[in-house]
Amino acid sequence: MTEEPTHLPDDEFLWLEDIYGEKPLDWVRDQNTRTQAKLVDRKFLELEQSVLEVLDSEERIPAVTKRGNFYYNFWRDKTNPRGLWRRTTWESYLQDSPEWDILLDVDALAAAEGTEWVFAGSQFLRPADGTSYRRALLRLSPDGGDAVTLREFDVEIRSFVDGGFEIPAAKTYASWLDEDTIMLGTDFGPGSMTTSSYPRTSRILRRGQSPADAEPYFEVPAEHMLAQAVHDSTPGYEREIAVDVIDFFNYRNYLRRDGGWLPIDVPTDVEVGFHQQWLTLRPQTDWQPAGTDTTYPAGSLLAAGLEDFLAGSRDLIALFTPDAGTSLQSWSWTQNFLLLNLLQDVSSQVLVLDPAQNWAAAELDACPPLHSVDASAVDDEDSDDYWLVATGFLTPSTLSRGTVAGGPATAVKSSPSFFDASGHTVEQHFAVSKDGTKIPYFQVGPKDLTYDGGNPTLLSGYGGFEVSRTPAYSGTVGRAWLQQRTADGRGGVYVLANIRGGGEYGPAWHRAALQANRHRAYEDFAAVAQDLMDRGVTRRERLGCSGGSNGGLLVGNMLTRYPPLFGAVSCGVPLLDMARYTKLSAGYSWIAEYGDPEDPAQWDFIRTFSPYHLLESGTDYPDTLIWTATSDDRVGPVQARKMAARMQALGAENVWFHEALEGGHAGASDNKQAARLQTLSNTFLWNALTD
């Protein structure tokens, strides 16, 4: 074991880091029993069943991916808790009850093989004719974690391929090169994984060959995050692309040319994309290309002819330039057009650009205010069709399909309404953070809300990794929060805060809360909490917060830095021990976001947002539920364990802990587990805020 740096504090609960050790698991079981005894009663079970009805509803929109002439879907419900991988035709999909061709029954597979498989996706080999898709690499997790087994599957015979590609469980990436060859990144043995626990090499594996004999193809230093090589099979533009993922926000991109790797000569914080003859570039910071006098602001989207760029031209086309209120969230190519998904003060706008008309831009479809709309290509190789998904806090999701320049999209599927929203309304407000920055937040609650501070209010947020939190319909939030009633008949209020660290206003909004400036994300969230109280929506005893993963770190900081603001906290799959997070699971890969605790200078600021080290005896902490999963191999369960143990050791009797044995970083691997987890969190918060 490596020696701990002397500047880091001692840890009396290191024994809980033995994830599958007998003593730690005994502690987990005792905690689970205690938590269930507190929360699980008849009312809990009724709500759990109601939430499960939402998750298992056969009226949900079956999301599909087009491959050739078929539309593929993965589906879980009451009868198939582990799920069905299936496909249908477009004509059938348009029906109220499509006829599905079942390709793989994951429940049957789990029963036959004695492994609780969790389906994690598929990668098809593109056939020569572009339509007769047959072979796929299936990703199957044995416990819901990020480590997956790769197995080759034939959709025509609905079976795994005899003697096909099969890679043991690991954090694995693969891309088809041809029908007998894949580019593979996995755990090949000692020295083949990065410090972040991801593959550091990509190798060529041929059919029938042992992974140990795979040919080295691309490699990155061990201290980098990941090596990945992919094959672009676009007809007429076939190429191999490799990416050296240095950290979460820095990359080096390469093209295979003349037997070697040709770098794309841009700064490492410029996102690079390829489509046919085009190269797209999105700088994360202001960028002035060498030899030019033009500076492109962070969050811009630029285009260039790929071959011209490789030849040295820096004649770039600005496709999108952000302003103070507008940011680019994502983009998607159809065969001939480029779709841009924008946010304007966290409301959606979709543009379509035509490269054949000097990149002329037009609004694709009108977007209602305070809603989210996302456009994406149906198939970027053979048509200009696009999907359009629209959703809102009180508006069930609608899936539409359209053709660029073919008129408005036509609704194809709609989710049912899982709760009565007629008495509710959505508002957007802005709080003012400590440094004067305006922080937007959405408030969802009764139209006749009484502003006397008495409303049970759930505040949610994330604030990290440039992830944007936007309006979305949730039957669970509706049933488990908005429709609940206090003894005096009040319903719940749900609030979503768009704090810095996220991506709602582009890269600058994210970078404003990195590392030494992390405190800004927490000040933003606290400002929203205070604004809710100042406006009379709620008060401390009626205000709770919840968050998972980085959001767990967020609410962990509310718990330790702002305990007078909250009556209850639900903290899920969290980062909490920022002294050791880089040594746990995939934590090393997040140094770019939080900083390196082994550097004494950086520990000086990291310790100010490390909840595990901010705990103090004698503090009046809010009621707290900490939840995680044993099989979480991204953050891991041990930070949650240690936080609960230390709080209880300090005398905080109002701290509760729950750990699911499977489910990975999501905390649940099927709908039943998800319903239990969501009901635990919501019931805990509701009881704490209304008792």
UniProtKB/TrEMBL annotation:
GO terms for biological process: proteolysis. It holds the Pfam family Peptidase_S9_N. The keyword Protease applies. One of its GO terms (cellular component) is cytosol. InterPro entries: AB_hydrolase_fold, Pept_S9A_N, Peptidase_S9_cat, Peptidase_S9A, Prolyl_oligopep/macrocyclase. This is Prolyl oligopeptidase. The lineage of its organism: Bacteria, Bacillati, Actinomycetota, Actinomycetes, Micrococcales. Residues 10-231 form the Peptidase S9A N-terminal domain. Keywords: Hydrolase, Protease, Serine protease. GO terms for molecular function: oligopeptidase activity; serine-type endopeptidase activity. SUPFAM superfamilies: alpha/beta-Hydrolases, Peptidase/esterase 'gauge' domain. Residues 488-687 form the Peptidase S9 prolyl oligopeptidase catalytic domain.
